[in-house]
Amino acid sequence: MPYQLFANLVLLLHLAFVLFVLLGGLFALRWRWMPWLHLPAATWGTAVELLGMPCPLTPLENQLRRAAGDAGYTGGFIDHYLLPLLYPVELTPEVQWLLAGVVVAFNLIVYLVIRRYWMRGRSNPKPSSSQPRKL
């Protein structure tokens, strides 16, 4: 049934977004423009977690699952899919703050490393092809 397929695709998109929020800063080591995509995504993901805002992908997935004949689920994506994998207990405000703190701290460290990497690259410019290389 196509609704089940679309619900599963939304689930995969949701998981990819959560991973991008957590790890997307690492892509900035390769692509200097990546922070322009990652920082808004990380801000949104952190705000959703800290403020208890609904993510638009959760209602979409539930609507597709109900259209496919499934029951859907209550709560958010993290509550339903990730927390049972990481924690056997219910989501509490303390756990939400912890998860948000992990996202912020990890990305802060990543961007500090990236900044150092970029600054080191500026202080050691690569020789141009017209200049002889020093051996």
Explained architecture:
The structure is a single chain. By secondary structure, the protein is mainly alpha-helical. Helix content is 68%, strand content 0%. The chain is built from 5 helices and no strands. The protein has helices at residues 2-23, 34-51, 57-67, 77-86, 93-123. Helix 1 (2-23) crosses helix 2, helix 1 runs antiparallel to helix 3 and helix 2 (34-51) runs antiparallel to helix 5 (93-123). The N and C termini lie far apart (65 Å). The model has no long low-confidence stretch (mean pLDDT 76).
Portion in beta strands: under 5%
Instruction: Please trace the helix and strand order, writing H or E for each element.
Output: HHHHH
Query: Termini separation (Å)?
Result: 65 Å
Number of helices: 5
| Helix-strand makeup class | mainly alpha
Q: Compute the CA-based radius of gyration.
A: 20 Å
| Average pLDDT reading | 76
The main sheet comes to: none
This entry's quaternary arrangement is: single chain
The unreliable regions are none
Shape: elongated
Number of strands: 0
Helix content: 55-70%
